[in-house]
């Protein structure tokens, strides 16, 4: 495990719960993160991922580091003949992704990418219903993905990490953090997309965009799509922060209709368990609310199964690069546009 911060701990708990996976070690620059990993059951921890890769005999590594370290981590893994499962975005740009993938190709290692929406049961339900043809052709679709972003939901108890608010380190703002998921799941549904127009906005006084709206067209299905993503909403789990609607000729398909039947009951049970764990000082259940985090388990499990069988990962580096290309086109159109930015809001 290369990085055991927020999402890294999700991947770690996933891997630890897989019967056919042996977690050997974890690396993180933060002592508190290494301590958490050790408490979770990791036998060895390192303060540097390059040291871990040189010291351990590994089949695969999960790269859950900030985006500016992805390319270097993959290069180091390639030097040690280690396959990689990379947290999205694959890289900060398609050019950086090209270099990363060329390094992997020359070394003969596999690259998987954690595009998790494909593994959520509501998105699987939408795809199944769409492919059944029950609503006929879909002239229009829309997707919205929102959360509270790196600043967190007020009142904020701890300062956020610096890299998500640094465009050079992260590659961008909410369009790259959240929109990248949307691009991937939309091409999974409709095939290749063309980006027609885009705008990015800042509702808060931060260095990266925290809102973006993109107009897309799917030539194969003749579907027009609007995508909106933002990190300005004070989300409250277990509310679902992704809305997907397909407006077909004979009806509508919505991901809201494909949520697990026990979604709220399961989330409430997990929330109560997590509250109790904080009182007793034990580890919280990383899979609760399970709806979101179980999808990360499925994505990593599918990658491991492909590697075990000598197959190409189901969501691989090409998919990761493709989503970056769409995001870059959106950024370019937004920069060239004349749209008015949202007025900056004061949040108290």
TrEMBL record:
**Which intervals hold domain GFO/IDH/MocA-like oxidoreductase?**
127-253
Annotated signal sequence is none
> Is Plastid set as a keyword in this record?
no
For whether the record's keyword set contains Chaperone, the answer is no
Q: From the UniProt record, which GO molecular function terms apply?
A: nucleotide binding; oxidoreductase activity
Q: Which domain of life is it from?
A: Archaea
Alphabetized, the UniProt keywords read:
Oxidoreductase
**Occurrences of domain Gfo/Idh/MocA-like oxidoreductase N-terminal (ranges):** 1-115
Gene3D superfamilies listed in its UniProt record: Dihydrodipicolinate Reductase, domain 2, NAD(P)-binding Rossmann-like Domain
PANTHER family from the xrefs?
Answer: BCDNA.GH03377
What protein am I looking at?
A: Oxidoreductase domain-containing protein
Q: Which organism is it from?
A: Natrialba asiatica (strain ATCC 700177 / DSM 12278 / JCM 9576 / FERM P-10747 / NBRC 102637 / 172P1)
Q: Specify the taxonomic lineage.
A: Archaea, Methanobacteriati, Methanobacteriota, Stenosarchaea group, Halobacteria
């Amino acid at each position: 495990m290369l990085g055991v911060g927020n999402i890294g701990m999700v991947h770690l708990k996933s891997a630890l719960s897989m019967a056919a996976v042996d977690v050997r070690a974890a690396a993180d620059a933060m002592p508190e993160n290494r301590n958490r990993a050790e408490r979770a059951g990791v036998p060895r921890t390192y303060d540097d991922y390059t040291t871990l890769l040189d010291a351990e005999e590994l089949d695969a590594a999960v790269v859950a580091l900030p985006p500016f370290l992805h390319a270097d981590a993959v290069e180091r893994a390639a030097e040690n003949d280690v396959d990689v499962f990379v947290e999205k975005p694959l890289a900060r740009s398609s050019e950086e992704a090209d270099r990363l993938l060329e390094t992997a190709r020359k070394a003969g290692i596999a690259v998987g990418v954690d595009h998790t929406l494909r593994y959520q049961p509501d998105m699987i339900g939408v795809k199944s219903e769409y492919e059944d043809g029950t609503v006929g052709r879909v002239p229009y679709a829309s997707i919205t993905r929102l959360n509270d972003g790196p600043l967190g939901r007020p009142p904020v108890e701890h300062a956020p990490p610096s890299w998500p608010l640094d465009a050079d380190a992260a590659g961008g703002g909410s369009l790259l953090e959240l929109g990248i998921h949307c691009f991937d799941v939309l091409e999974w549904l409709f095939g290749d997309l063309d980006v027609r127009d885009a705008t990015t906005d800042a509702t808060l006084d931060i260095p990266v965009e925290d809102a973006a709206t993109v107009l897309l067209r799917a030539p194969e299905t003749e579907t027009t799509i609007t995508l909106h993503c933002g990190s300005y909403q004070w989300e409250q789990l277990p509310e679902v922060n992704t809305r997907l609607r397909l407006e077909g000729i004979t009806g509508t398909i919505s991901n809201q209709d494909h949520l697990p039947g026990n979604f709220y009951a399961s989330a409430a049970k997990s929330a109560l368990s997590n509250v109790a764990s904080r009182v007793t000082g034990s580890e919280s259940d990383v899979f609760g609310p399970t709806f979101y985090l179980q999808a990360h388990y499925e994505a990593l499990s599918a990658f491991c199964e492909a590697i075990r069988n000598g197959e190409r990962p189901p969501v691989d580096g090409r998919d990761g690069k493709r989503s970056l290309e769409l995001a870059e086109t959106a950024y370019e159109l937004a920069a060239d546009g004349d749209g008015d930015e949202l007025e900056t809001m004061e949040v108290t």
